[in-house]
Amino acid sequence: MIYPETFEDKLGFGQIRQKLKGYCLSAAGAAWVDDMRFSREVEVIRTQLKQNLEFRQILEKSEAFPSRYFFDPTEWLQKIALEGNWLEADEFLNLAYSLETVMAARQFLSKAHDIYPELYRLAQPVMITGTLVQSITSRIDDKAVVRDSASPELGRIRKRLRDEQGRLRKLADQIYRTAVEQKWVPEGALPTIREGRVVIPIQAEHKRKLKGFILDESATGHTVFLEPTEMLDANNEIRDLEHAEKREVVRILRELTDEFRQQLPVLRVAYQFLSQIDFIRAKARFSVEIGADLPLLEKQPELVWYNARHPLLYLSLKGKRDIVPLNIELDRQDRLLLVSGPNAGGKSVCLKTVGLLQYMLQCGLLIPVSDRSRVGIFNDILLDIGDQQSIENDLSTYSSHLRNMDTFIRSASDKSLVLMDELGSGTDPDFGGAIAQAILEALLRKRVWGVATTHYYNLKLFAGQRQGIRNAAMRFDDQHLMPLYVLDIGKPGSSFALEIARKIGLPQETLQEAEKLVGKDLAGFEKLVRSLERERQELSERLKKTERQESDLKQSLAKYQTLSSELENRRKEIINKAKEEASSLLRDTNREIEKTIRHIRENQAHKRETQKVRKNLQDITQRVEPEVKPQKRAPEELKEGDRVRIIGQDGNGRVLSIQGKNATVQFGELKSVTKIDKLEKITAAVEKEIATRLRSVGVDVFQKRSTFNDTLDIRGKRVEEVIPLLDQFMDTAILLGQGELKVLHGKGEGVLRKVVRDHLKRYKEVASMNDEHVERGGDGITVVVLK
């Protein structure tokens, strides 16, 4: 049950229908928009949402899905169904074009059936083949004219017609030249057609000098259009042949229509598919425009939403300011939410967002929420919002609200979603508040789900004490008296009536009198609410700060532990290696000493032999002494944007930021924090060194430059695939010193173009980005000029 009848108008769903119809390519697709209805069948809704999501992916990847000749075939199929009727040649031609679109769409989905399974299921019943299209195009050309070859009789008739027309033209030229020589023809006049017959223009005073029939005259009466007697038979023959041609064309079209009449069931299935694809495409385009996604769908009522946005509000504020997303949660323990807060603070927008998004989802539309949100299925959505005064039924606004409340209490169940704006308002506050509380109690007993907004003090207390309902508040900046449009669940909100009145400028005496009239209890309650709000905000800020500090501490600790472990492992490796080298060196030294002593003894210490032995010992000494390391060079001064490499390595990156002795460097897709003294700025000499080293291992930079393609083709790629390809392409281009590049992304809906250009803005090396010349691809290609 959807209540009231004006539900869609009150929530703005009619505007969404109009937007969808504007995206449709055919009247048949727009008819699906008109027929779109609220559904309670979870599997039907799930299928519709998946179809929507799959087509949204097609648009985002700018894939070449057919988008032309989405004609509405209703009139054609009605003509075909009538025995003895026929389609005109232009109608058959459009029928052929649209059938080609059907086959192209089916072929596209057949090839991608694993990627778009729900859309492929729609295409499976379509049995259209190229034979039907061929039967049209073999008889009708692309100018919607029945071909001469459509039948032997038509070919014969048209040949005779052309011959007779040629003979008539020669005869008309001959008579016309004679009349011109006799100066019977007005100056500049030529033979023309009147009533389908070739005639000669003759001055009125000479009309008796040429035998024939006058078929017409000029507006002034100075010229008559005369059919000479000699041309009468030829004109009659041509007229007969034209009638024969028309009869034969009609016979051919009737015959072709009879062939298609036998295929009516197949045609209806095909056009059902085409119109439904048009409708789904329109939904997908709207989903892209509002940033909609597919949440987790539950069979039972549930409402746990993250980053929900009102689609119409989002579109109206797009490009002006960001919309504050809504986070809301209703569970089986607390199914009702009572939202309070100041006027113009966003309470009604919150309520309308809940109603509109739930209705959209159950109509098969993706909704603008985070994909981790959980959305359940309700049997009913009941709405009470706005001024519903009725002169015809003699109902006041409050009476109308009460009639709605009566319907809610009688009709709502544990699978109903009830939305009530300004609950209890419109009458005496004491009685209105009491009745509103009783209504909430009745709805709670029926375990109804819902959202209500109010200013009433007693309802806020009720929600704080009664199980099954929770308070919520629209956050408000009490320092600047500005709404923040953020929903806080778990506490009531203040109306800030006195503060707003003070800001507007009411006299202080008046405000003091108002405070006295309000009473200490209510004023104290309002102050307590505001105090709690300030404390909550302060606590929230402290909590965020603590969480950030804790996160930083965890990262630092993890980094320290990793570094400590690496250093310890490195220390052990160095010590073990040093011990092995020392042991080996000691063995070699002992061996050389023993050998020396033995050599001296054997040669009785001759001077020449002694010198030789001393040299050997000096060689051993040099091996034992530690190497003198070269003096460490002073690090070069680096700045943001410089291309650098880690000393001794070939890979290079770009400096993103410098903090003290550390620099954050982007190496391809990875970011790394590195000591500045470990980095080396890439100069011409360094680049030459890298090139030399790469050639030594089989990689030639100059050869790489000669094979580099300055055009990157990313058509058909997903968004997540594009960024790595684009980074690799740009890194190579920058390394090779390229001047102008081209990125071929296609036109489509412009999603890939936006992703490419937004990402290229991060490169400081990019001087400009523009569309290619319209004759060479236009906005389907981005031309990038490097500095």
In a few lines, what is going on in this structure?
The protein has 24 helices and 24 strands.
Architecture blueprint of SSEs:
Layout: E1 2-3, H1 7-11, H2 13-23, H3 27-35, H4 42-60, H5 74-81, H6 89-111, H7 117-123, H8 130-137, H9 152-181, E2 192-194, E3 197-203, E4 212-217, E5 223-228, H10 229-261, H11 264-290, E6 296-297, E7 303-308, H12 311-317, E8 326-330, E9 336-340, H13 347-362, E10 374-375, E11 380-384, H14 397-411, E12 416-420, H15 429-445, E13 449-453, H16 457-465, E14 469-477, E15 482-489, H17 497-504, H18 508-518, H19 520-603, H20 607-624, E16 643-646, E17 652-659, E18 662-667, E19 670-675, E20 679-681, H21 684-696, H22 701-707, E21 711-713, H23 719-735, E22 740-744, H24 751-760, E23 766-771, E24 781-786
Parallel strand pairs: 1-11, 6-10, 9-13, 9-14, 11-12, 12-13, 21-22
Antiparallel strand pairs: 2-3, 3-5, 4-5, 7-8, 7-10, 14-15, 16-17, 16-20, 17-18, 18-19, 22-24, 23-24
Helix pairs in contact: 2-3, 2-11, 3-11, 4-11, 6-7, 6-8, 6-11, 9-10, 15-16, 19-20, 23-24
Describe this structure as you would to a colleague:
- With 787 residues, the chain is an alpha/beta fold.
- The chain has five domains: 39-179 and 235-290, MutS, DNA mismatch repair protein, Chain A, domain 3; 296-493, P-loop containing nucleotide triphosphate hydrolases (Rossmann fold); 539-618; 643-701, SH3 type barrels; 708-786, 2-Layer Sandwich (Ribosomal Protein S8, Chain: A, domain 1), CATH 3.30.1370.
- Helices cover 52% and strands 16% of the residues.
- It has 24 helices and 24 strands.
- The strands form five sheets. The protein has a seven-stranded mixed β-sheet with strand order 1-11-12-13-9-14-15, sandwiched between helices.
- Strand 4 (212-217) and strand 5 form a beta hairpin.
- Helix 6 packs antiparallel against helix 8.
- It is flat, with a radius of gyration of 43 Å.
- 29% of the residues are buried.
- The model is unreliable at 389-394, 520-524 and 627-633 (pLDDT under 50).
- Residues 712-787 form the Smr domain.
- Residues 522-577 form a coiled coil.
- It is an enzyme of class 3 (hydrolase).
- This is Endonuclease MutS2.
- Homodimer. Binds to stalled ribosomes, contacting rRNA.
